[in-house]
Amino acid sequence: MTTAERASPIRRILIALDASPPSIAALEAAAALAVRINAELFGVFIEDVNLLRLAGLPFAAEIGVLAPRTRPFATDEMEQHLRAQRVRAEEALVRVAERLQLRWSFRVARGQIVPELLAAAMEADLMALGSMSTQMIRRAWLGSTTQALMARAARPLLIAPHGATVRLPIAVVYTDSPGSAQALALAQYVCERLGDGELVVLLIADDAEQEERLRRTAAARLEASRATVRYRWLVEADANALARALRAERAGTLVFATDVGELDAQSLRQLLERMDVAVLLVRDGGQTSLSTTVVAKENKKR
Description:
The chain is an alpha/beta fold. It has helices spanning 3-7, 21-37, 49-55, 75-100, 113-121, 144-152, 178-193, 208-221, 239-249, 265-274; strands at 12-16, 40-48, 61-63, 70-72, 104-111, 126-130, 157-160, 170-174, 198-204, 228-234, 253-257, 278-282, 299-301.
């Protein structure tokens, strides 16, 4: 292992796969980033135990989309459906990884989706998710799974709308919060790995004095950065203000921390509806250190 690999805070990227368009979009975005940072792709497919329980109920039925017909839906049919979905998910991972010559691994787990993903995330350094809650919705609504992971994940999250990848310029929201300091460090790292490009620091301040203090603090943290850094002052960090700033700066990626008050799940949903940008989300207290856990019972290509 090289010195650069040991120093990298992102060596393994978990992708929550279910073969849906949002999860494939997340896979493509994660793979594009993995190429630049020499990371492994770690695909996880969760067999949702709640769906299996529902299929086992006597009143469970399948309703046709094009015709108002219902028919009984049994557990064995759900098992068959999940197997087919799992195969498609793994095939998608293999295609992308082999095309880009990336290391990859794939795991299947059965249980409730959020707890299983949270457990798997402890063996990765970043988790990639699609932004939509269902294939039938074309707008970038955040699903309940994504919102739960936003609140509980101990690793940074990559949320990628269809067609979006982590690209320059990188914009990062910075306040005086502990989480925003972590977000700044992650943004600096990604920006430098993408080619020492432009890093836009969005300073959230009520007045000029606070803005100047935040600027000095951020500049000190970025003193050794090879990126071209510029600053932009925002009084608020709501979806409208962020969208205007991202457009003005032509930003391709937004990095922010969950302890910045205005940037809740609703604001993020509104932002993703307006902008085709990838979002890197950092929780205060979340970890970005190297992952050393060895994954058992998995298919792996080296």
